[in-house]
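FW: tagging you since you asked about this chain on Friday. Here's the raw sequence from the shared folder, copied in full. Didn't touch anything.
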Amino acid sequence: MLKWALIFFVVSLVAALFGFTGIAAGAAAVAKILFYIAVALFVLFLVLGLFAAGTLR
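HL: got it, structure written out here
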């Protein structure tokens, strides 16, 4: 998912470079949402992994 966020970020940069501001803003918004979802899933799986390993008991 982080890979897709990076792809949308690059698309938004290229679109902004060529002056397509609407497309750039849309791609940047999608990239931001995907990035936050990826971070939230990372934190969730990190906590679950620590509970499964027994380090937070």
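FW: The first helix runs from residue 2 to 17.
HL: agreed, and The helical segments are 2-17, 21-53.
FW: great, closing this out.
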